[in-house]
Amino acid sequence: MDTKTQILSIAADLLQKQSMNGFSLQDVADRVGIRKPSLFHHYRNKDALVADVIESSIQAFRKRMEAMQDQPPARRLETWLSVYVSNIGAGSKLCPVGGILGDWDHLAPDLQQRAQRLLDLQQHWLEEIALSGKYVHDANAAQEWAEDLLMIVQGALVLSRVRHSPLPLERAVTRLRERLASEGTFSSPALI
Fold it and tell me: In what residue span(s) does the HTH tetR-type domain sit (predicted)?
């Protein structure tokens, strides 16, 4: 792994575990094993580094969407849920957007826009799933459906972090799967 990739990976981990104000460029440099001035070769400041972390999350999500585009809507939805349950690290981490929310009013507009793009990307993907799976009948209902899912999962992720336990997220996702199964979205409470 090259140095820039290491910097990005470590910064993402710190952002999700400690939030934007919970780590410094020195913390990143120490974990990478380089001197702090060497970071400036790759990033002019912490905002630029965090912006790249969020942009990487956007690109990773887009790749996941592209890889899943031929899958049935229920499978795509289950994949989205499993990202939160399995990949983020509920109880110890937040999503990248969650790592900057506490500082929202003080963030550079570019960081706010990137974070909004990541959330919008997820919401639009969920809306498309709702419509293509015929879980709702129109675009307004799809928007509400997608917002509900985002609120449930993001809120449970925050509660898991505060309680230092994956259980709130796991319970919320289990209830959500059960609800979706009862509505006919899933044929069983979990597809995985």
Answer: 1-61
Cβ–Cβ under 8 Å, residues 49 and 43: yes
Q: Which amino acid is at 74?
A: A
Helices and strands per DSSP (H, E), number in the chain: 8, 0
Residue 93's DSSP bridge partners are 90
The tally of CA atoms less than 13 A away on the side-chain side of residue 106 is 5
CA distance 147 to 135: 14
Do residues 22 and 92 make contact, with C-beta atoms less than 8 angstroms apart? no
- With vertex at residue 119, the alpha carbon angle to CA 148 and CA 32, rounded to the nearest 5 degrees, is 130
- 140-186 pLDDT tens trace: 999 999 999 999 999 999 999 899 999 999 999 999 999 888 887 76
